[in-house]
Specification:
By secondary structure, this protein is α/β, with parallel strands linked by helices. The chain is built from 18 helices and eleven strands. It has a five-stranded parallel sheet with strand order 3-2-1-4-5, with helices on both faces. Helix 2 packs across helix 3, helix 9 runs antiparallel to helix 13 and helix 10 packs across helix 11. The longest helix has about 35 residues. The radius of gyration is 26 Å and the shape is globular. The chain starts with a helix and ends in a 5-residue tail after the last helix.
C-alpha cells in the first residue's frame, strides 16, 4: 500500500470530525469554512501530515503548537461581539480537535503499521544498534520496521573494523551479503549505526549502499558537540554545523522550578500515608529498623547533598557490600563496572517491591521542595563515582540531580553506568520543557510495566 495514502486518510477523518464539531456548536457556514481553512493550514505548516514524525511526543508537540496558533488567531479574528458563550464554544472546539487529531494519527499509524512501516536494515550490531531496535519495537507509533542487522565485523571490505556484538539473533547478516539482503527483504531504509567507526569505514559503507534504498540515516558519535539546537549552515558550498552549549534561560529555570515546587508539594503530601504503609510492611516482615536513610550524593556544582530514600536494603548495607566484594571477585567486578549488583543479596523482600515500583525514591521529593534536587534531572551520583563519570562530570553537575531523568526513562537499571552518564550529558545539552514531559511519560510507563526496575 502506498505510504502517502495515510496523510490523506488522516486529513479526511479530521475534516469530517471538524465539520460535525462545528455543527454541534451551531457555527454558521462562513465561520466553519474560514476557521477550518486556518486550522488545517496550521496543521500542515507544523508537519502534522508529514510521515517523518516517528514518536508520539513529537506529534503532541506539533499539535500543541498548531492548536495554540489557531486559537490565538481565532481570538484575534473573531469579533468581541460574539459573546462569552461563543468564545467558550471555540475553546472547546480547539481542545476537541487537538484530541481527535492526536487519536486519529495514533490509530492510523498503529492500525496500518504493517502496511505503512518502512522496511529498515540496520548496519551494525553494537549497543546503539540494539537500542535502535528496542525503540522501534516498543514504539508502535513509529513507521519503522527493522527487518535485520548487518554485522560489520570480520569484513575485509571494511579494513578489519570491529565493534562489540550486542545483537545475537537469526536476523543478523554478514556484510558481504548486503546487496543480496537489500533485494531479498525489499529494504526501503538503511540506518548506519556504527558511531565508533572512523571516517574511512563510514565512507566505504555509504558508497556500498548509495542509490540502493529510498532513505539512508546515519547515527553519529556526537559526544555532546551537537544538540537539537545545532544548525546546519551552507558556508559557500561547505556544510557547517553550528553548535552551542547555552545555559538554561531565565524563563526555562523559572518554569522548571515551578514544576519542581508543584511536584514537591504533591510528593511530600503523598509521602505521609506512604511512610505508614512502608513501616507496616517492614514491621510485618520482622524488620524494626528505620525505614528512611540518608546518603551523600553529588549535587549541583559538585556540592555534596544529603538525599533521602526508603531503605530497601538490610542495615549496614555498605559494610556488607565491602565484605561481599572481598569474598567474591565476580561481585567486585560487577559492582565496579555497573556501580550496582543485578541480583543484590542485600535487598530485603520489602525492598524488592519498593525498587520495582520506584517508591524507594519517593522521600527525595523532600529534597525537591528544599531546592537541592529537581523533579527531572541527572542521576544523583555517589561521591565515589566521580572519577568514573569521566568527561561527563563537568556537564552533569551544572544541573540539579533529579528524582527521575533520562536514564530512568530509558531502561533504568538495564542501562550500563557509562551510558547513564552519556544520557545525563545529553539531557544537559538538549534540555527543554518538552523533553521533561517526555521523561515523565516514559518514567510512568516504565514503572507501570515494571521494565528495568531499580
Amino acid at each position: 500500500m502506498n505510504r502517502k495514502i495515510m496523510p490523506i486518510m488522516l486529513f479526511v477523518i479530521e475534516i469530517i470530525m471538524y465539520y460535525f464539531i462545528c455543527l454541534y456548536f451551531h457555527m454558521d457556514e462562513n465561520l466553519i469554512v474560514g476557521s477550518g481553512t486556518l486550522y488545517f493550514l496550521f496543521l500542515f505548516i507544523y508537519g502534522h501530515y508529514s510521515l517523518k514524525t516517528c514518536l508520539i511526543w513529537n506529534e503532541v508537540q506539533q499539535l500543541v503548537k498548531s492548536s495554540f496558533c489557531f486559537y490565538i488567531a481565532l481570538l484575534v479574528l473573531v469579533p468581541d461581539s460574539v459573546g462569552y458563550e461563543r468564545k467558550m464554544h471555540l475553546t472547546l472546539m480547539v481542545i476537541s480537535m487537538f484530541l481527535i487529531s492526536l487519536l486519529a494519527s495514533r490509530f492510523l499509524r498503529i492500525a496500518f503499521r504493517d502496511q505503512f512501516a518502512r522496511k529498515t536494515l540496520v548496519i551494525g550490531t553494537g549497543y546503539e544498534a540494539a537500542r535502535l531496535g528496542k525503540i522501534s519495537n516498543n514504539n508502535r507509533f513509529a513507521l519503522t520496521n527493522i527487518m535485520g542487522y548487518v554485522d560489520v565485523n570480520n569484513s575485509d571490505r571494511l579494513k578489519g573494523f570491529k565493534q562489540d556484538n550486542v545483537i545475537k539473533r537469526s536476523s543478523v547478516y554478514e556484510y558481504s551479503l548486503l546487496d543480496e539482503i537489500i533485494k531479498k527483504l525489499s529494504i526501503e531504509q538503511i540506518i548506519v549505526a556504527v558511531p565508533e567507526a572512523n571516517q574511512q569505514v563510514v565512507d566505504i559503507i555509504m558508497s556500498d549502499i548509495y542509490g540502493k534504498v529510498e532513505s539512508v540515516k546515519y547515527l553519529p558519535d556526537v559526544n555532546g558537540t551537537m544538540t537539537f539546537s545545532s544548525e546546519v549552515q551552507d558556508f559557500d558550498g561547505q556544510l557547517l554545523i553550528a553548535t552551542s552549549n547555552d545555559e538554561m534561560s531565565f524563563i526555562g529555570r523559572f518554569l522548571k522550578r515551578l514544576i519542581d515546587i508543584f511536584a514537591g508539594i504533591v510528593g511530600v503530601i503523598s509521602l505521609i500515608p506512604l511512610m505508614l504503609y512502608v513501616k507496616y510492611k517492614y514491621i510485618k516482615s520482622g524488620d524494626h529498623d528505620n525505614i528512611i536513610f540518608s546518603q551523600n550524593r553529588i549535587g549541583k556544582n559538585g556540592k555534596l547533598i544529603k538525599i533521602y530514600k526508603f531503605r530497601s536494603m538490610i542495615p549496614n548495607a555498605e559494610a556488607e557490600l565491602e565484605r561481599l566484594m572481598k569474598e567474591d571477585p565476580k561481585i567486585r567486578e560487577e559492582y565496579l563496572t555497573n556501580k550496582k549488583l543485578k541480583d543484590d543479596p542485600r535487598i530485603t523482600s520489602v525492598g524488592h517491591f519498593l525498587r520495582k515500583t520506584s517508591l524507594d525514591e519517593w522521600p527525595q521529593f523532600v529534597n525537591v521542595l528544599k531546592g537541592e534536587m529537581s523533579f527531572i534531572g541527572p542521576r544523583p551520583y555517589l561521591p565515589r563515582e566521580k572519577e568514573d563519570m569521566g568527561q561527563y562530570y563537568d556537564s552533569i553537575i551544572k544541573l540539579k540531580p533529579g528524582v527521575t531523568g533520562m536514564w530512568q526513562a530509558n531502561g533504568r537499571s538495564d542501562v550500563e553506568f557509562s551510558y547513564r552518564c552519556k544520557l545525563d550529558d545529553y539531557y544537559y545539552h538538549n534540555w527543554s520543557i518538552w523533553l521533561d514531559f517526555t521523561i515523565i511519560y516514559k518514567t510512568i510507563k516504565s514503572v507501570v510495566y515494571g521494565k528495568g526496575s531499580l
